[in-house]
Amino acid sequence: MAETASGVRSIRVRIKRYQPDQNAKAYWQEFQVQADPKDRLLDVLNQIKWEQDGTLTFRRSCAHGVCGSDAMRINGRNRLACKLLIEDIGTQITVEPMLGFPVIRDLVVDMDPFFAKFEKVKPYLINDEPAPATERLQSPEQRQRYDETTKCILCGACTGSCPSVWANAEWVGPASIVNAHRFIFDSRDQGASERLRILSDRNGVWRCRTIFNCAEACPRGIHVTDAIEEVKRAILYGSNE
Amino acid sequence: MKYHKFDVVIVGAGGAGLMSAMQLAHNSSIAVISKLYPTRSHTGAAQGGVAAALGNQEEDHWKWHMFDTVKGGDYLVDQDAAEVLAQEAIDAVYDLEHWGLPFNRTADGKIDQRRFGGHTRNFGEGPVRRSCYAADRTGHMILQTMYQQSIRNQVRFFNEYMMLDLLINDGQACGVVALCLRDGSIEVFHAKTVVLATGGYGRAWRITSNALSCTGDGMAVAYRRGIPLEDMEMYQFHPTGLYRIGILLSEAARGEGAYILNKDGERFCIRYAPTLAELAPRDMVSRFILQEIAEGRGIDGQDYVYLSVAHLGKETIDAKLPDITDFARNYLNVEPYYEPIPIQPTAHYAMGGIPTDIEGRVVVDEKNTALPGLYAAGEVACVSVHGANRLGTNSLVDLIVFGRRAGKHIATKWLPEAEFAPLPPEPDAYATELVEGLLARAQSKSKSGETQELIRQELRDEMMDRVGVVRDEAGLLTMQNKIAELKGRWEQVRLMDSSRTFNTELMEVIELGNLIECSEATVAGALARKESRGGHYRADYTSRDDANFLKHTLAFRSDQPGRPELNYKPVVITEFQPKERKY
Asked: What DSSP state is assigned to residue B23?
């Protein structure tokens, strides 16, 4: 845990527990912790796990917002526990697993369906022309065109905050569209029409109701809804310039 | 017990593992086992770039890159390996571009390149633009691109499986045993080939840039099976970690022109390294910083200094260093547009690891005898291209070059001839005993023993204080005894979680055991190496001693806790004779 010097305070963390080996139902449990305002929420969860209750279960790895392991619902919003400081969330904290995902245990949700949807949109460069001996050329402007959607870390925060996903588990969801966008607008890619066809079907972009929860949830600051809108326009007008 | 059978099992889904997988996906049955979902791997945290002498911005040659790598590594680098690294970096970077990696671009549409520490033109004359980059998230882009291509090539993943054991029979690798986190099952993967690509062990230190998952699993598992660990005393402290939490602030900042300042606002690196200043190699800059702090020139007399990017201007910061400046804002409330960022050296990278030859084959003794069927690549391995100190960007180069080479060698040389070695009797015996023993401790609700956290904190604190940037005999001897003690205490660790469903306490306890094994080899190598070279600096032996120590350490696990048997092998020197390292 971070070792800052001053201002340790007592905080209350309410966590939604699900321990399938012991209890078929989820329940709430409260923990009191002494934390520094500069601590990440992840530090606090680790402190609970290591000092109070070893059975508390959550994913984590990089602890600085780049690996996407610890997306969870914190005071009603999907966030990464490692990007959120105690001083920014206060002393009464509620933590739950993300909505819209099957829960495996405590805060750990099943990400397999999420990655399966991601794979559906062909999230890889498609260009079957023989590659040149050096790089394919791309101007800085062409490169900038899809810069924002390259930032996605596949944490699921957007998808798990989307009411359209909650209503229909089959829907491809915002994260997949973000990753389709990343290739549709890449000048080197030739798979745009395939992806746009996939995204124009009944479980494609049109289930997006522009609620903007996804954009608000994104820990990478991607304007997710805008990216979805760009994909919609590309389908309507057949242009991905 | 579940049983799987594949031609190749790759353990680890970071850059090295996936690069190997890419070479094999078309023609062989392969499985990639990963403790995490692949995109969570620590390759994704790499920031600054990947070096290759493309010469897109100015004249450059792979031989200059090779020389910089050898000199940067304080001549402990195997020069045949450095030659491969520098030469093949070029094609490997083009491969990544062809697979879609969104590199930043020059005005004429080529891959943009920037300066990085220790990379020079014409054998040390001055800095050169060699680092190919994608903003300050190059590692993220490499990991995403490789994962995307793995999907395209229908690579079979076993996600959230933790390797517990490596199987060797009849002198050949024949598989691994892994714990499926989701249901707690122990599963045997029978294979003709095992590739270890599990990364480093930075979590052995209190202040580190490494993810919580970087616990040396591959090194520890191999070490327990009698495979030596090479040059483990060579551990890199990156000079610019975010104060107190250790998060990496890329050297790309200095590549773009950032300053390091002491309490007087002085760019003190110029005093120590007049030619390269802040862009001197990392081991040196880390020592410069500690020297300033020791002489009372830390900020407010404390144990940190400043990294300043304010003079670069908002436009450069936003275009080229967006992520790291966000870290400063998010975690320290510092606005880098106007304010300097508090930094201190942070445990970052293992130059040492499982010894391999330049094809990625694991070699198990001082004569470089290969163990058939076993490969390693990336940070877990020691080829050795980094010697005693790795240059910035060369970690990503190592992943893609040697991940690729291992994969190609397996596909073209090994698999056409290889047969399955039979599994040893009761292949899961070690793993099952380990897991059942720990779960039984949890089940017993016994209050004896201590929590894993107490043991882990003590390991990390002691490693930081005694096996950090500066070391000496007394501290290392104390640490050697401490390791033996911690091993005993780990045997008595107290657990609370007896569930088989996603038991992360169990995982963490096993990881802690792995960290202690890696630390044991690190301390023993450091104690025996009575010289200062690269990342290994001894306050009691401050000079490099080529007559006695121009050689690689091999640490073999022994029955005596804390005391592996040490052996040595020569360094491969082809073109560049060892010289004093000046910048």
From this structure: H
Yes or no, beta carbons of A61 and B212 under 8 Å apart: yes
Question: Is residue B119 classed as helix, strand or coil in its secondary structure?
Answer: strand
Burial of B63 (0-12, 13-18, 19+ CB in 10 A): middle
pLDDT of B541: 98
Distance of CA A6 to the CA centre of its chain: 33
> Cβ-count burial of B366 within 10 angstroms (0-12 exposed, 13-18 middle, 19+ buried)?
middle
- What dihedral do alpha carbons A21, A22, A26, A30 form, nearest 10°? -120
B427 CB-near residues (< 8 Å, 6+ apart): B167, B175, B177, B188, B190
The per-residue pLDDT for A51 is: 94
CA distance A65 to chain B (A): 9
Left, alpha or beta for B581 (phi > 0: left; psi -120 to 50: alpha)? beta
CATH architecture of B238-347: Alpha-Beta Complex (3.90)
Q: Which residue among the candidates B114, B130, B203, B282 is catalytic per the annotation?
A: B282
Q: Domain-by-domain residue ranges, chain A?
A: 9-109, 112-237
Q: Which of B221, B57, B191 is nearest to B130 (CA)?
A: B57
Q: Which two tokens stand for residue B156?
A: 């079979």
At residue A125, the 3 state secondary structure works out as coil
Residue range(s) occupied by CATH 3.90.700.10 in chain B: 238-347
How close, in Å, is residue A128 to chain B by CA atoms? 10
**What is the pLDDT of chain B when averaged over all its residues?**
96
Question: In terms of CATH, what superfamily is A112-237?
Answer: Alpha-helical ferredoxin (1.10.1060.10)
Active site annotation includes B121:
no
3-state SS assignment for residue B442: helix
* Assigned CATH class of A9-109: alpha beta
Chain CA centroid to CA B439, Å: 31
The answer to whether residue A2 scores a pLDDT higher than 50 is: no
Predicted confidence (pLDDT) per residue in B474-492, tens digit: 999 999 999 999 999 999 9
How far from the centroid of its chain's Cα atoms is residue B578's Cα?
25
Give me the total of CB pairs closer than 8 Å, taking one residue from chain A and one from chain B: 160
Of B105, B149, B501, the CB nearest to A143: B105
Return d(Cα B105, Cα B496) in angstroms, integer.
53
Q: Is-above-0.90 flag for pTM?
A: yes
